[in-house]
Write a structure and sequence with these properties.
single chain, globular
């Protein structure tokens, strides 16, 4: 195995583990402050942390976004997805929330076929069908009483799939780290108008979590970019599902919850189907190898 591939695998596993940790912090913060405020702090902090490096690396002119309209839509999707996740995770066990979120690779297949003129053979559609079956096992919808939290997280997965489809388009015209930065700036701008009307005093106990979220969220994005700069997406795809395993661990650590038997079965179907779909298509939810950082 080439050293760059091994490095990419290590980076993607670290990135996904940190992503699961950041998600748990968002769930905790959502119990103390409004969901949109959690998202605002995350993206504002990420923007400020990335700015000095990007100015040094690319200069002020390098920060000019390619396809600004698409960048703005992507930023809007980032703000919406994060807010929906924080809201939804308040009434759903954390590991189940992450498992439902992993409907996005299957949703991305549908978006790619309908809107990006990509093709998918019958093995892919079988994988997508089995994957959605796994999601239903985790959600276990009861028609008499719908779990709104699970619905919100599924909507988050849908928006995330749109965001990643846009990322793939932008990957051809913009360095990934610039795209991440511009998206964070746009997300911050989109959320800022909501602050004056419902700003609240943040308790001292919330501030450590806010700083941890900013640092972990930024680290997740940076490691993700460098992982896919070192290795092909199809190679790294199976290792992204470490996030679900990490979510189980953090769910138990922070919230003392473990998935039920049906949830475990659903998680297994989601992970296996996601890996199968990625291998079958030789593409994944992420852009191909990045040549510029």
């Amino acid at each position: 195995m080439p050293s760059s591939t091994l490095r990419g695998i290590i980076l993607i596993m670290a990135s996904m583990t940190i992503a699961a940790f950041a998600g748990a912090i968002m769930k905790l913060l959502g119990e103390q402050i409004p969901a949109y405020l959690v998202a605002w702090f995350r993206f504002l902090g990420m923007s400020l942390l990335l700015l000095p490096y990007l100015l040094w690396r690319f200069g002020i002119r390098g920060l000019k976004p390619a396809r600004p309209g698409m960048q703005l839509i992507r930023g809007l999707s980032m703000a919406g997805a994060t807010t929906l996740f924080v809201l939804g995770s308040q009434t759903v066990d954390y590991a189940d929330a992450i498992a439902i979120l992993y409907a996005y690779p299957f949703l991305l297949v549908i978006i790619a076929v309908l809107f990006l003129n990509e093709r998918a053979g019958w093995p892919v559609w079988i994988g997508v069908t089995v994957g959605f079956s796994g999601v239903l096992l985790v959600i276990r919808p009861e028609f008499e009483e719908i779990n709104t939290g699970a619905v919100l997280i599924f909507l988050c997965a849908l928006i995330l799939s749109i965001q990643l489809a846009l990322s793939r388009r932008l990957g051809a015209v913009s360095p990934p780290l610039i795209t991440a930065f511009v998206g964070a700036v746009c997300a911050t701008a989109v959320l800022t108008p909501f602050l004056p009307g419902s700003w609240q005093t943040i308790s001292e106990s919330a501030w450590p979590y806010i700083w941890i979220l900013i640092l972990s969220g930024t680290a997740n994005q940076v490691l993700l970019v460098y992982a896919f700069a070192d290795s092909d997406a199809s190679t790294l795809a199976p290792f992204t599902y470490i996030e679900i395993v990490a979510a189980v661990a953090f769910g138990y650590l922070f919230f003392s919850t473990l998935p039920s038997f049906l949830s475990w079965l659903g998680i297994g179907l989601i992970a296996a189907s996601g890996i199968f779909v990625a291998r079958a298509r030789q593409i994944t939810i992420f852009p191909r190898r990045a040549s510029k950082l």
